[in-house]
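Q: What does the assembly look like in three dimensions?
Context provided by user:
Components: two
Sequences:
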Amino acid sequence: MTATAQRPTTTVFRRPRSHTGFWSWITTVDHKRIGIMYGYAAFSFFVIGGIEALLLRIQLAQANSEFLTAGAYNALFTMHGTTMVFLFIMPASAAFMNYLLPLMIGARDVAFPRLNALSWWIFFFGGIFLYSTFFFGTSLAPIGPGGVTGNLAMGGGPGSFNFIASSPDGGWFGYQPNAGPLYSPGTAMDYWALGIQILGLASLVSAVNFIVTVFNMRAKGMRLLRMPVFVWMTTVVAFLLLFSLPIIAVALFMVTFDRQFGSVFFASTAGGDPILWQHLFWLFGHPEVYILILPAMGIVSEVLPVFSRKPLFGYSAVVFAGAAIAFLGFGVWAHHMFASGITPVAQAAFGLATMTIAIPTGIKIFNWMGTMWGGRLTLNTPMLFAIGFLAMFTIGGLSGVTHAVVPSDWQQTDTYYIVAHFHYVLFGGAVFGIFAGLYYWFPKLTGRLLNEKLGKTHFWLMFIGFNLTFAPMHWLGMQGMVRRTWKYPPEFGLGPWNLAVTIGSFVIALSILVFMINWYRSKRRGVASGMDPWDARTVEWMIPSPPPEHNFTDPPVVTRLDHFWHLKYDEDEEGRPVRRAEADALLERLEHEGNNPSSPIHLPNPSYWPILMSVGIPTAFWGIIYHTNTWGKALIVIGAVVILTSLIGWSIEPLEEPHGDDHRDDGSEHDFAEVGSGEESGDGVEDV
Amino acid sequence: MSDLAHDAAIADHPEHESTGVSNVKLGMWVFLSSEFLFFGALITNYLLYSNRSGFEGRYPADVYDIPFTSVSSFVLLMSSLTMVLAHNALSRGDQNGVRTWLFATAALGSVFLGGQVFEFTEFVTIYGATPATNPAWSAFYLLTGFHGLHVAIGVIMLLTLWGISRRRGDLSDKQGLNLEMVGLYWHFVDIIWIVIFTVVYLISVPPV
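A: Here is the predicted structure of the complete assembly.
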């Protein structure tokens, strides 16, 4: 019954064939290209979210400012938070994971290449869906009892900012019933709820893909405790996503049903429970915090050993601490709700549980310091960002411990102290980590180095700007400045620090501009990096830069942790590394072999289905928002038909066309292995 | 039989450290672990609201038609049996048997869905119970509705497999949308229904 070998390639479309240009990017299933697209999209949203933050800071620069109306301010802080969490840090982490995960475990691609393309396109259209609220959404003032309009001015702002009126304004946490149909009429919060739903779906698909990749696709000898810490953190994050996203999915469906189909989950008038939303949201929301920070911790765990020229101190402790953070992260959600009236027993339990998180986090911090201790440090840009991460994240972690103390937290709840805390862990932590990774792996991506001078300028501007922005927020919070308020009277004396904060935020903006210039110039004219510019330790540096499409001509057979390093270095009697005589010859051989595979290598073919299927989802969701109209119903039907057609088309399309008809002239086609009957290549088993 | 031997060869892929479970199968297991949380949250919602006192209108537990739902539950359980028979036929290389049992599974699933539509219609028309009645009804409709959606997606996948088999007659466990994966999904949907039927329909605690 081996009828599979001659399986006909019945598809609706002709298989896409372009390997360069626009269509090659649309149809690609190459994890590296998908990672690059994730990266650019995430950075674009970073800039948009940053501009939103700057507008907020202009408003707050002085007392009683009239720059923005209250409604516009609400809309901007909602979109700033939502954008930075869901459209910047998460996809930026996804960019690193996509690009690096297969390279770091010695694989040719992820387990499900087309599914990987699907996650990317769902994310992309989810972002467009969420931001389409600026064009289509409406955010109306709540109607109070007896039909009296609520006292909050409708969205909008001065002059050209009026379009902000059409964006969600219920906060990134969307507390109910404030964000429900009664108090947030109009469609903007529907765009928010359904937009996050789409983005969550993208992350869920990625999570499944990455977990299977890690468990099934590692190169020979790459045992679990030989994987780089970044791969470990990717795995941990994938599990966090897997178990937390379904909860927010349910919660967001409840909101959508309340808003669109008349259910009363959170309608206090009908007995609905607003605290239920908080529980569901934070049961997702707290693991989400670790989803944001753990990839950065993984990046830093790669960068610090390389530039300290020492192995990571306490590798297994760092790995298990990461897993412990994730595990504990599911048991601490109610520390976001200490002021919501939960019982004293619950407060005590969640306070204590929260404090225990400091233990694995502390383990990590001390192990990173242990890595640097006694090392030969090279203070170039990636290392500076990694050390910046370490210092800033520690400050944020310490202020976090103060929130675990319930009476202290009551004083801090909804003040700028909280804003300071989470920006120290998310900006000082995750974003510094992401930039460390960008500087570190840029040579892998392009074969060139980012300019060191501009890089250091970027780092110091960002470091100073960051602290000028967020450190004073601690003091503002202690003075009682509340979050989410668009105005403060001059007699409160909050003006000077607020002005400093605003100046700091513009310094950050300047530093990002320096980074963009550096990226643009170095991509074209940067110094050629060669294959191994940092004298690195992990296997992704064993292949040419930029990597060939097939990644590894011969996947490495891994013998120990930091495999690549041990190929290059031996130890003398005192345990000091001594470069092997044959190291340079090895690099040369690896580079030549990497670019010139001796036998053709087969890779998964590009496909139209992922992008087509992902278009169907926002189409149907737009329809849900306008389901009372005929054309809304039509959109739902069209979306469903597109998804269904794609599902069927996808399932009858083989991952790889039968060999023989797709060899390209440049000889860079390939074969996974000698396994099976040719049709089945093991590496890229089909997927849904 | 050679299909299975071939599959085993892939599972022990010589070039990879691997769990020995094929990618598609492992992927489905991982996805289902997420689905448990999804239904866990939905069932919890229902349990939170189902016996809360003071809501307007009837409670879902007042109007369940247990005999009717028992029958439709039985139908769904039987579809797991036919699913197993389909898989068994595949491993024997009996493509005709595969088609028959796949279609039977899809048909039983559709009967269950029909029962759910009938049940919902009854609740709405006879008792006037809609998602807007009270939070307990909101939770009931969301939970059972999403379960129904899962069954419907399962039926679509089964029919897709059936169609592929009819056209090409070469179903195997190595295709992306393969029978084993759909089978896993289908059994999961059944198991969840056992929990829902027990917790939501059979054990109903009166409002306190």
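Follow-up: Chain A touches chain B through 71 residues (CB under 8 Å).
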